[in-house]
Amino acid sequence: MSLEQLIEQCKKNDAKAQSQIYKLYASKLFSLCLKYSKNYAEAEDNLQDAFVTIFTKISQYKSKGSLEGWMKRITINTALQRYRSIGVFDIVNEDKIEDVSVEIDEDAVSIDFLLGIIQELPDRYRLVFNLYALDDYSHKEIAEMLDITTGTSKSNLARARMILKEKIEHYKASISSQTL
Amino acid sequence: MSDKKHIDRLFQEKLKDFEANPSDAVWENIHSSLHDEKRKKRRIIPIWWKLGGAAAILLLMLAIGNTVFNNNENNDSINTVVDTENNSNSDAFKNNSTDKNASNEVDFDSNNNVSDKETNSDETLNNASSSGKNLINSSVNNQSKIASTKPDLSSKIFDKNNNKQKELSKNNTSNTLNNKKDVVADNSSNPFNSEKNSKTKSEDNIIPDYLKSASKNAVASSDEKTEDSVNKEEEIITNEKTIEDAIAETNTTEEKEKEEKLNRWNITPNVAPVYFNTIGKGSPIDNQFVNNSKKGDINMSYGIEGSYAINKKFKIRAGVNKVELGYATNNVISYTDINETSALGSINVSSSNQLSHVNINQNAQNTTFISAQSFNRNDVPEILNTKEKGSLDQQFGFIEVPLEIEYTVVDKKIGLNVIGGFSTFFTDKNEVYSVVEGNRILIGEANNLNDVSYSANFGVGINYNVSDKIKLNLEPKFKYQINTFNDTSGDFQPYFIGVYTGLSIKF
């Protein structure tokens, strides 16, 4: 069955077609969820909510962009919605810092480690870093999505970068000290 | 070796091709939340069956009670007809309920199976990793043993096992879960998995709690989330609306949903003038009055009714009403003098002072009632001609329990609907009065009035929407009574008409 046919079947709430679409995209979208979530369980929850939305609203998908892009946006929005509803974005008072270029030695750091330190970031830093650095949203778009100013978005991104860098360097140091 | 790189690039490159497999439970949850909704829609018809079944059982019980109660008296044909109908209905209902039981059992079995499997795979995991999880594992095993003896506990254990399953599947991020045991065996050779393994264990304490709350909230929140994120989605595609707009939209749609849900229930206090009469000639009192003129009284009925909207068109209504009905038999001559009785000797009137369907009380022990139409005035002794003609008034009181369906024809400011259904009547008042020259004496009670009777109802309703919450109703209803009397003289088929006015309040 072609993707178009699958989508048509999904619009009729056909369980088989839904299962096929799920199998095709679950792992991609789940990696996305993992990046935007605090932990594994939350990511699974997020994925579940995202797919329920995708299948209930698939009739609104107009085949203009790619299905994957559409599904990714829904997944990201589901993640954002989670934090919006628990009021993560209410923090107003914080010192803004300038965007500084954070550079790092590229070494063999595992994907798991990188994912782990992303998940450990404070919620908003994690979201901003994900949106800007990994999913190519502009500060303006992020500001609108998270209901913050572009300044806050930039500042959050800079802080996220610094925290990440620190953790990577600390990790490397601990590894090299172990090996020595 | 290592060159300086912007941190964003590092993450981008490393995570570019990163994919991870969620546990099977995720798909199962997605599937059930998508197709449970479907089931809810289909449930409209089963509700009918259930209600119909409940009504049938109620009817059956009443009918049995009725037959037992009236055992010493002649059961008329109507009674039997009602009985057989009820029996067949209740049979159907019983079948329904046994089916349900069967399906429940199947579900339960499958749960058990699943939990067994989980325990097994847990054991395998334990053996392979030989970590310090034996304690937990053995407690799980114990619990599943208990499960076999105490079905109540099985659901709890199933939850636990579910958690285990999640944990287990997390170990298998790069594999599908079809062959759990194989995967577990693979764990030792797969560094990625074993790393995950240790991670998952460290999260053990957090996950079960999280899952519990998640599963609780899942059903309630999924709808809202769906709405929310879809609004978000549209917004991004069109890039026309701001987030605030979308949130506002979300809120309003949620509110609308709530309103629709909340307004399913209606409560309607009502009051109605009711007019009692009969189709066909006959008398509920005695043979001799069959040809007498009779008059139905206009009385009041009042009560309260609740209704539940199944959908926009159909509502189910049930309620409790107090109904008083009155019926007067005119042209009745009553006398108490013994001399007068003897004077009647010449007339061939079957009046041994008894009215066949009335149990006479002490007030009227010596009174005789005869129909003025049963003899020619010219042939009777003078004394009877001088007697004032009176009437026999019957007063019946019932507690009415209607169960009706309302179908909306017009749903505007002024609405129109059609109502059909049936009522069960419990007799709570049964009096016969003799009325002569304005004097009203209680002479006894009808012995042919059943304690429980029924009616088939049909009506048209007109309502006026005062506000979103309040409606004024005007419902003329015709109620054809069934099984009200167990023995009447002639063809006496009672009905009553009521014009029910009420104020219905939505909530």
From TrEMBL, chain A:
Q: Which GO terms describe its molecular function?
A: DNA binding; sigma factor activity
Report any one BP term from Gene Ontology.
Answer: DNA-templated transcription initiation
Q: Which domain of life is it from?
A: Bacteria
SUPFAM superfamilies this protein is in? Sigma2 domain of RNA polymerase sigma factors, Sigma3 and sigma4 domains of RNA polymerase sigma factors
Residue span(s) of domain RNA polymerase sigma-70 region: 22-85
What keywords tag this UniProt record?
Answer: DNA-directed RNA polymerase, Sigma factor, Transcription, Transcription regulation
Using the record's annotation, list all stretches that form the RNA polymerase sigma factor 70 region 4 type domain. Answer: 116-162
- GO CC terms of this entry: DNA-directed RNA polymerase complex
InterPro entries referenced in this protein's UniProt entry, alphabetically: RNA_pol_sigma-70-like, RNA_pol_sigma-70_dom, RNA_pol_sigma70_r2, RNA_pol_sigma70_r4_t2, RNA_pol_sigma_r2, RNA_pol_sigma_r3/r4-like, WH-like_DNA-bd_sf
Q: Which Pfam families would you find in this protein's record?
A: Sigma70_r2 (PF04542), Sigma70_r4_2 (PF08281)
Regarding protein family, the annotation reads: Belongs to the sigma-70 factor family. ECF subfamily.
User: What's the name of the protein?
Assistant: DNA-directed RNA polymerase sigma-70 factor
Source species taxonomy:
Bacteria, Pseudomonadati, Bacteroidota, Flavobacteriia, Flavobacteriales
UniProtKB/TrEMBL annotation, chain B:
Q: Which domain of life is it from?
A: Bacteria
Keyword DNA repair applies: no
Q: Where do the TM regions start and end?
A: 47-69
Region Disordered, annotated ranges: 82-207
Q: Where is the composition biased (Polar residues)?
A: 82-114, 122-147, 186-195
Keyword set, alphabetical order? Membrane, Transmembrane, Transmembrane helix
The answer on whether this UniProt entry bears the keyword Transmembrane reads yes
Composition bias (Basic and acidic residues) maps to: 157-169
Q: What is this protein called?
A: Outer membrane protein beta-barrel domain-containing protein
